[in-house]
Amino acid sequence: MLIVAIIGLVVNITSILILQGSHKISLNVRSVFYHMIADAAASIGIVIVALIIMSSGIVISHSRSLQIQLEQRMVLSLLMLLGLRYNIMHF
Predict the structure, then answer these.
(1) Domain Cation efflux protein transmembrane, which positions (predicted)?
(2) pTM (two decimals)
């Protein structure tokens, strides 16, 4: 879970940096930019929870479902980023 969360955080931060200058151009790009910020915040939360679980051994919820959700968000974020970067998808 920790490795996937860190990969997701790196992808989200990269997306934020790429979209940073262009988020003022259109409302759609701005919404993607803020979505990436929200995903990065979620990834940070998952990293913190994973570190707590690893250090204490206490598992409060089922971590596999969180991992699957994070993986799905990473794939969607990457597809949106590639679509915007190479004009594959038009928003």
Answers:
(1) 1-55
(2) 0.61
Name the DSSP letter for residue 62. -
Cα 14 to Cα 28: distance, rounded to the nearest angstrom? 18
**DSSP conformational letter for 61:** S
Tell me the chain's radius of gyration from C-alpha atoms: 15
**Cβ-based burial of 54 (10 A; exposed 0-12, middle 13-18, buried ≥19):** exposed
Could you give the CA distance from residue 39 to residue 42 in angstroms, rounded to a whole number?
5
In 3D space, the residue among 73, 68, 65, 69 whose CA is nearest the CA of residue 40 turns out to be 73
Q: In the chain, what are the domain boundaries?
A: 2-85
